[in-house]
Amino acid sequence: MLNIVFYFQVHQPYRLNHFNVLDIGSDSSLFDDRLNKEVMLKVAQKCYLPTNKLLLELIKAHEGRFKVAFSITGTAIEQFKLYSPKTLDSFKELVNTGCVELLGETYYHSLAFLYDRDEFLDQVSMHRELMQQEFGYHTQTFRNTELIYQDSLSDIVYEIEGFKTIVTEGVDRILQWRSPLYAYKNYSKRMNLLLKYYQLADDIAFRFSNRDWPEYPLTVQKFVHWIDKLSLGEHKGRNQFLNLFMDYETFGEHQWASSGIFDFMRHFPSEILKHSHLGFVTPQETADLANYQQESISFPEPVSWADEQRDLSAWLENDMQHNAIETLYGLFEKIRIKGDEELLRTARLLSTSDHFYYMCSKYFQDGDVHKYFSPYDSPDQAYIYYINALAELEERLMR
Amino acid sequence: MKILMFTWEFPPLISGGLGMACYGMVKALLGLGIKIDLVLPTKEMVYFPLEKPGDVDTLPAVFFEQSKQLRYTAQTFVTLEERLEYIGISDDPESYFQLSDIKQYVQSIKKEYWISETASVQEHELLQQMTDSLVGEEDLIHKIQEFTMRSERFARVLDYDLIHAHDWLTYPAGMLARRISGKPLVTHIHATEFDRAGGPGDERVHKIEHSGMRFADQVIAVSEYTAQMIMSRYRIDSGKIKIVHNAFSVPDDAVRGKKRIFKGPVILFLGRITLQKGPDYFLDIAHKVLQSHPEARFIMAGTGDMGRKLLRRSASLKLQNRFLFTGFLNRKQVERILRASDIYVLPSVSEPFGISPLEAMAFGITSIISKQSGVAEVVNHAFKIDFWDTDLWVETINHLIANPEKCIKMGIDGMHEVNKIQWNDAAVKIRNLYIATLAEYIRNQE
């Protein structure tokens, strides 16, 4: 049996204002509420509301045979409440079907794991509480920001938070000859580990509307045919898992409705379910379905799902990114000593990984993706506003 | 007395010290009863007949074409900005007008004036050198060509006693006007290519500067430092050079009281982020001062071609959130950053004058200025250090941070000193130079 594991990432950051030196100490807001509202309303209308509606219809139509997983950040939930409560309601309705798994992550979609373990654990438990409170859901599976993963991450989320499954990128340099279609164990064999099948996931997420792609247009029949072919490689009756992980905004936002992405999704489950050896499961179900000795895989260095390199270079490569993030985590220490909750909250909003992504100065194709997502003219501008915001934070700290 | 004056910058058309200097100077000259027809690189073909000091703020304009003038006078403008926009003055001096054909420029100018038989051999050579140098595909060169072509009509139609041209961008126009009218030319040197480039610079610009100063009847240098430079580098006859230092007047609406942004001491760099201004020295100084005074904040205010490089370098030096960039600031914003600063530094590699320190001093900010600057000649209550002597800059700033009472006293003394440096004194010197030049001219006519 080959099971498709859909997991969609739902995230919106609090984007910074064009915050200048002269704004420091002036009590002007660090965050661009107008832009954040505008983006939320746009994405809700183009993606969240129509896609949630579609998924709900599909879940009902297939009576438990179609399942998906979401990871929804705390900053996204907060902004649903502020600007689009209907969106939050529609997610609740989906979760109530019982065919939706919610994953755990950092509340602020941060890189705290790499810089401040205490802060990381705080943000993980804040997110877990939020999922409990909003959805009555206890998360079992963990995904770190941008699928960043390394061995030591599995240790702390297992030991301290008791997560059972973890998801990350199926990076070639780690997998080598192994297939991402099987469920693995982490290096210490204590956690169930799922790896994104990036070729097929990215066909939907990145290439779907690309007319220069030789496979364009991607039809449901073609895609299901490829999936069917994957299942032919397994002769021992082992359960396989095709992990299609992607940003939820793929639907209607990154790939516009006019590309046919909604029609694709509408017909995809029924086409899959025509085949008795194909189906859908959620990440946490995979551990029990793995009817074989799961091999353990070690990730000594951090990986992620971003860009060609699938490493940390989208957020932490150039000097601007390093100076910015090191300055931020330096401030976390001082804020904790002072015990100021409001400042801690602000620092946490500044810990969202998007801020560092905007400062990325890699060229080529990846740079284009960064540019598409950035509210600033250049990485330098993003850096200037961010550093000014940190200067403001420090002045508030000294008050 | 009436002057035909060419300049590339005048508020609100301003990118640096040239515009501020022209503004103060013209206003003071008008106060002495001198009338000035001002020509700027505007989009529309206009000039500004200025008669009284207040005209520098209202900028009354006259269109050259009758029909356009009629349409212009029929317009009602609510604000000054609206009117200036109509004329084609923008805040960005790099974007005024489109260019017509370059060939047309060379042909029309060469044919009629340059090669004319009445020119002396020396004049001919200088005009030739200027024309040959004013060639290139850059936007700026195109704009200067256009400006120069237009000057022909101004030179012919307007009535004036003397021509005054500021910096190389307007020297070709000044030269052409002198050639056409036979009226004496004063070229004013605010900065040479050596200063701006922080090195040899563009040879075409040197040649235009050279021919302009040689062609002129009188040359005004903004400092002793600059006078030395044009004597040694351009071999201009010292008898032709007069030194008139710039001055600074605080705008009437300026608010100067301290208004802190940061709790720690603030050290300010204010100017174009170009090699000439020594911004890289500022960064080195900041790096070292922050090691002993992490509470200090260094602010780099302005824009320029080295901005990106310095931003990246400040990040690589891990200066955290202690070295900040403001980007472009308008006048009111400059005022606010000055009110928030404690120490002003001008580590210029070569600064012909440098008005900005006077502005900082007028705000009571302790100033440290490069010895390689003209402004160092006119103020006493400021620290003067060789631009390259980073350790001494660092020591001085550390000392001022450790002794805030000394820093405040130096700032107040500096403020009193700057208040005495008036544009009127400079204008009197310029008027005297105009008179002497005209007297010489009339003597030669006889």
What would you note in describing this structure?
The complex is a heterodimer of chains A (399) and B (446). Chain A is α/β, with parallel strands linked by helices and 399 residues long. Chain A has 2 domains: 288 residues, 7-stranded beta/alpha barrel (Alpha-Beta Barrel), CATH 3.20.110.20; 80 residues. In chain A, strand 6 and strand 7 form a beta hairpin. The longest helix of chain A is centred in the first third of the chain and has 29 residues. In chain B, 49% of the residues lie in helices and 14% in strands. Chain B is built from 18 helices and 14 strands. Chain B starts with a strand and ends with a helix.
Key features of this structure:
heterodimer, A: 399 residues, alpha/beta, 7-stranded beta/alpha barrel, five-stranded parallel β-sheet, 16 helices, B: 446 residues, Rossmann fold, 18 helices, 14 strands
Which class of the largest domain in chain A in CATH terms?
A: Alpha Beta
Question: Could you say how many structural domains of chain B there are in total?
Answer: 2
Strand segment tally of chain A: 9
The chain-level structural class of chain A is alpha/beta
Structural class of chain B: alpha/beta
Q: How far is the first residue's CA from the last residue's CA of chain B?
A: 20 Å
Number of helices of chain A: 16
Shape of chain B: globular
- CATH domain class name of the largest domain in chain B: Alpha Beta
Give the integer mean of the pLDDT values of chain A.
95
Largest sheet of chain A: 5 strands, parallel
Assembly level: heterodimer
